[in-house]
């Protein structure tokens, strides 16, 4: 970072590295934050609803929509025949995801038509009146059935290999094989999917969409309407949560709204109910990991082979990159001398699974922690001891190369774990728990300390770019627009802090405006934890351009050198004179200085060759560690999270308050994934956990009773990111691995810790109780 351009001054309110509240926090609390459903409805607005199939896999023999069309208030019924362009909303370009299916149904709930009516209630009621005749086909909804039916892959798998594990597995002192099932997860954003399209003249259409990827919505709508992108504007002020569920899944709703709006020349809104949203949108991928590992008497891994099979759904969506990233993180924080990792993205007759916070990384990392746990129980050692023995080493140690051949050059995991181990008094507490479990017959305790190492960057190199547009007006106020989207994570606030810091003005001088494809084109999704990295640097580039012009202007006008032009808090010093910032900008305007700039940034150094499984897909790594203590009732399987301590690395934090909030939220969401959130399809292929009554996210009362979160304030990114910060969106999610490991230890106590409990996830009370009973029998 150019220190001459960015000089942090405590005298301004809201520079980088200062704790500042989220720009919309007070609006969230008061209920005044405007979401798409709060926008005043245009005159003549119509409402849409999906006509959903009630088969998991079938041919459509005939469909009678006469009753649907005759329902009072219905204006139009759309089928595949009404699409003027391409009947496809797929993200990966494989053209395997029709907007409206025509002849074949591949999951229960798939859209076979859409109803447009004067009211939302009329549209939804009419959509249930269709008469459809099906010819049922064989179907499967889970990984085991997919494998037994020799299901095709929705996209080619990937192999990462280093060394010769096929021969080295026989050469270590110990060897074991095992498997683990890792459950999926519903996003459960507070605001369900929604899109509103307003037709304009000629080919124009404006779409308001709750999406993390406005440019993809623009492209998809263009393809469906057979319209160029320049005629389509997509706007996003904020989302009520996203978590990856709004990276691609908003495509269908935006495309249907735009299709109906242009066909009928009236504004159209689609807002599915929660149960519809959960039935027709993708989720976190379920995984089944099978592994074969060889290790020595100290627990140090010598060789490992692992296969990660995933339930991907009926189409590819983002399953390729998701299962790729699972392999990228199947090492967790550990060095594998000889390794082979394989992904198997399986087709199932379920809704196509998609991005979710961590993007496959949590599944890969959890699998690695299970390997460590198995070794620990096999050797009768503390799992933390095995973790430490397998950590990546320092650069040049010979233990610094990942399975994808990227060198780990910024490794601080040993220090993070050591500091947390000391600060949370792990060793003394574990000893006390071992004593407690000997005397307590029913309640058993567990404790675990687990690490996090998470790679930051899109693995699709082209996505690692961003743009920003900055205007400085004559009165000194500043308008900021960039390609990132705000879903509650504080991105807008952080990038505004970059602008305030750059110009050395108070943050209330910076106006944060809605993300729109009309201002910044060709944006990447706000995903992969890269929002602040990419958009912050793009905004910084725009500030740099404007400041260079201002410095040149001032030097010429006042006859001083460029070095004598210094931006001070809310003023500019030119030689011996200090000028208030608004007055200085007014002078620049009169001097015909361009006060607007389009900034741009692309992440350096990264490259990736998927065919060879080699490259540098990540710009840097974010690190962290968590220690969790639990209590388990062995008669019922119920449990409490007693305490969690977290130490997390965010580099030099752009906004410590927001970052701590992201860490807390990520941990609790990860805890839900591992404990309470269970997806279940019945024998007819219907998702039965499709509402809050049947799908259980964590409550506030489920959080750890003692919850200590601290930033590793000594950490600073070794790469020149914005303010030397690090990404914070996804890495904290995996801190929750300590919860599962602690529950495992509590269960293992009933068999004197001699047997690995092999808990699958989610570790619901039922699963824990079954593990306890299984271990009791094994002990006998």
TrEMBL record:
Report the enzyme's class at the first EC level: oxidoreductase
Which Pfam families does this chain map to?
Answer: Ald_Xan_dh_C (PF01315), MoCoBD_1 (PF02738), MoCoBD_2 (PF20256)
Q: Which UniProt keywords apply?
A: 2Fe-2S, Iron, Iron-sulfur, Metal-binding, Molybdenum, Oxidoreductase
Q: Give one GO term, molecular function aspect.
A: molybdenum ion binding
User: Which InterPro entries is this protein grouped with?
Assistant: Ald_Oxase/Xan_DH_a/b (IPR000674), Ald_Oxase/Xan_DH_a/b_sf (IPR036856), Ald_Oxase/xanthine_DH-like (IPR016208), AldOxase/xan_DH_MoCoBD1 (IPR008274), AldOxase/xan_DH_MoCoBD2 (IPR046867), AldOxase/xan_DH_Mopterin-bd_sf (IPR037165), Xanthine_DH_Mopterin-bd_su (IPR014309)
- What EC number(s) does this enzyme carry? 1.17.1.4
Q: Which domain of life is it from?
A: Bacteria
Where's the Aldehyde oxidase/xanthine dehydrogenase a/b hammerhead domain? 30-138
What does this protein need as cofactor?
Mo-molybdopterin; [2Fe-2S] cluster; FAD; Mo-molybdopterin cytosine dinucleotide
**Gene3D superfamilies given for it?**
Aldehyde oxidase/xanthine dehydrogenase, a/b hammerhead, Aldehyde oxidase/xanthine dehydrogenase, molybdopterin binding domain
User: Which SUPFAM superfamilies does the entry link to?
Assistant: CO dehydrogenase molybdoprotein N-domain-like, Molybdenum cofactor-binding domain
Question: Record's family?
Answer: Belongs to the xanthine dehydrogenase family.
Q: Sorted alphabetically, which PANTHER family does this protein's record hold?
A: ALDEHYDE OXIDASE 1-RELATED, XANTHINE DEHYDROGENASE
- Protein name per the record: Xanthine dehydrogenase large subunit
Native organism is Allorhizobium taibaishanense
């Amino acid at each position: 970072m150019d220190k001459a351009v960015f000089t942090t001054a405590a005298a301004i309110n809201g520079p980088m590295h200062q704790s500042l509240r989220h720009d919309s926090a007070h609006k969230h609390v008061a209920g005044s934050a405007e979401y798409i459903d709060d926008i005043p409805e245009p005159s003549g607005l119509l409402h849409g609803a999906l006509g959903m199939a009630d088969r998991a896999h079938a041919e459509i023999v005939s469909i009678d929509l006469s009753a649907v069309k005759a329902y009072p208030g219905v204006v139009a019924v759309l089928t595949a025949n009404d699409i003027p362009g391409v009947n496809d909303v797929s993200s990966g370009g494989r053209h395997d995801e029709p907007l409206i299916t025509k002849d074949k149904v591949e999951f229960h709930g798939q859209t076979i038509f859409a109803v447009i009516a004067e009211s939302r209630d009329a549209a939804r009621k009419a959509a249930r009146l269709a008469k459809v005749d099906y010819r049922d086909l064989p179907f499967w909804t889970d990984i085991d059935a997919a494998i037994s039916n020799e299901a095709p892959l929705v996209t080619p798998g990937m192999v990462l290999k280093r060394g010769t594990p096929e021969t080295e597995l026989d050469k270590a002192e110990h060897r074991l094989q095992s498997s683990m099932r890792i459950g999926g997860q519903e996003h459960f954003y507070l605001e369900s999917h929604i899109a509103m399209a307003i037709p304009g003249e000629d080919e124009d259409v404006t779409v308001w969409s709750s999406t993390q990827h406005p440019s993809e919505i623009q492209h998809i709508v263009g393809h469906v309407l057979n319209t160029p992108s320049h005629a389509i504007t997509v706007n996003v002020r904020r989302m009520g949560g996203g978590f990856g569920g709004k990276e691609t899944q908003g495509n269908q709703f935006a495309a249907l709204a735009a299709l109906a709006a242009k066909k009928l020349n009236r504004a159209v809104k689609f807002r599915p109910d929660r149960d519809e949203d959960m039935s027709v949108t993708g989720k976190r991928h379920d995984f089944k990991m099978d592994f074969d590992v060889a290790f020595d008497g100290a627990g140090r891994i010598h060789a490992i082979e692992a296969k990660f099979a995933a339930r991907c759904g009926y189409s590819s969506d983002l399953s390729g990159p998701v299962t790729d990233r699972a392999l990228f993180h199947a090492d967790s924080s550990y060095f594998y001398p000889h390794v082979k990792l394989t992904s198997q993205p399986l087709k199932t007759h379920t809704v196509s699974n998609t991005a979710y916070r961590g993007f496959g990384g949590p599944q890969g990392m959890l699998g690695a922690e299970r390997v460590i746990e198995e070794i620990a129980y096999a050797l009768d050692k503390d799992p933390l001891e095995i973790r430490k023995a397998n950590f990546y080493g320092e650069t040049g140690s010979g233990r610094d190369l990942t399975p994808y051949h990227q060198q780990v050059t910024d490794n601080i995991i040993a220090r993070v774990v050591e500091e947390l181990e000391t600060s949370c008094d792990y060793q003394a507490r574990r000893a006390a728990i071992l004593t407690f479990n000997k005397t307590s017959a029913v309640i058993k305790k567990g404790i675990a300390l687990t690490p996090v190492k998470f790679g930051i960057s899109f693995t699709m190199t082209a996505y690692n770019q961003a743009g920003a547009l900055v205007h400085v007006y004559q009165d000194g106020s500043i308008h900021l627009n960039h390609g990132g989207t705000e879903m509650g994570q504080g991105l807008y606030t952080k990038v505004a802090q970059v602008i305030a810091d750059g110009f050395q003005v108070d943050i209330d001088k910076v106006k944060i405006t809605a993300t729109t494809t009309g201002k910044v084109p060709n944006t990447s999704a706000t995903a992969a934890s890269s929002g602040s990295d990419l958009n912050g640097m793009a905004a910084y580039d725009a500030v740099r351009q404007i400041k260079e012009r201002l410095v040149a202007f001032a030097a010429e006008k006042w006859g001083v050198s460029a070095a004598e032009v210094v931006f001070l808090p809310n003023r500019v010093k030119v030689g011996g004179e200090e000028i208030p910032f608004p007055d200085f900008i007014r002078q620049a305007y009169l001097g015909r200085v361009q006060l607007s700039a389009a900034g741009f940034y692309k992440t350096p150094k990264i490259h990736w060759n998927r065919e060879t499984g080699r490259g540098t897909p990540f710009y840097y790594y974010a690190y962290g560690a968590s220690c969790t203590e639990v209590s388990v009732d062995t008669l019922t399987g119920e449990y409490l999270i007693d305490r969690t301590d977290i130490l997390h690395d965010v580099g030099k934090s752009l906004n410590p308050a927001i970052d701590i909030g992201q860490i807390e939220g990520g941990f609790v969401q990860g805890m839900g994934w591992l404990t309470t959130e269970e997806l279940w399809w019945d024998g007819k292929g219907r998702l039965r956990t499709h509402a809050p009554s049947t799908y259980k996210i964590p409550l506030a009362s489920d959080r750890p009773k003692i919850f200590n979160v601290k930033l590793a304030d000594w950490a600073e990114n070794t790469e020149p990111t914005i303010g030397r910060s690090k990404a914070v969106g996804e890495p904290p999610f995996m801190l929750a691995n300590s919860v599962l490991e602690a529950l495992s230890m509590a269960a293992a106590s009933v068999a004197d810790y001699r047997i690995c409990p092999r808990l699958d996830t989610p570790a619901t009370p039922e699963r824990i109780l079954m593990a306890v009973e299984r271990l009791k029998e094994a002990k006998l």
